[in-house]
Design goal:
2 copies of one chain form a homodimer. Chain A has 163 residues and is mainly α. Chain A has 5 helices and no strands.
């Protein structure tokens, strides 16, 4: 499609993120399965439940702008997940694999943080206060998920230092 | 290669980021050319100069860990730039295109922020204080570049509101 207005760009970006969140709902269980530390597994599983909520919120946003929920292939998440698979697949040691999983998860979190932050700004600008509010709720959860991963990375460093 | 230790993972991630930064040195001039606002053009050109410095710093980091500078295809940056090209290519209006460029640039910045933050942590953990320091300098520049883009996004919103 051709993008002519900020409304169009907002709509296209919501479609892109809808694809990304739905893809993560499929990918996070595999990531949790690859993780060894119970804390990391549980953090990923917790984030999977949140991610299902993010999909629902985006469906609400589609409704708020009078559009049907349609996903548009998100090349960014494809690349980020391909890289995550490659990195994690190369690691033999379970502790180091956990460290790699945390690092890859944070690249995905940061993609989403950038996208949601932009969408919240555009929603305000376009007068969609309701959409800005629920997109902001997801943004807060992505920021918290990134912080959780940082704290687990610190624990992992301490574990490796103790060995 | 097979990753067995945190040293290996650090090395692999530096190779990945070396590919990404070199790719950006090629891509940023195209992005600057697509931009219309002089402020945005100049911000991208300024960041291009910084990015060349990031490539040199990574070469220094390779030296610090006694490795040759070798790039490893970074699927994440490939995906992020493919998405950026697609989004920007679909936009007709120049102001909206600038808004799209800013948004795409921020997804790239955030990828780099996540990667450099992780590398600084690993470098400290591995006792590479010198590498941690110069990677931290790049991290600070990426954070500043992201903030600059956010401030330009605000200017762009005001311009559109005035029309």
């Amino acid at each position: 499609m051709t993008v002519k207005t900020l409304d169009d760009l907002f709509h296209e970006t919501v479609k892109d993120l809808y694809y990304a969140e739905k893809k993560l709902v499929k990918s996070l269980p595999k990531m949790a399965k690859m993780a060894t530390s119970p804390d990391l597994k549980s953090a990923i599983e917790h984030h999977l439940e949140q991610t299902k909520g993010h999909v629902s919120r985006l469906e609400e946003v589609f409704g708020m702008i009078d559009k049907k929920p349609v996903a548009k292939k998100c090349e960014a998440i494809e690349g980020l997940l391909k890289e995550a698979d490659e990195v994690v697949g190369e690691i033999e040691d379970t502790d180091i694999r956990d460290t790699g999983i945390i690092s890859s998860a944070q690249t995905v979190e940061h993609y989403e943080i950038a996208r949601y932050r932009t969408l919240v700004g555009w929603a305000h600008h376009l007068g969609h206060a309701d959409a800005a509010r629920i997109l902001g709720e997801t943004l807060d959860e992505e920021l918290a998920a990134d912080e959780k991963m940082s704290s687990l990375a610190g624990d992992e460093d301490m574990r490796q230092a103790a060995e």
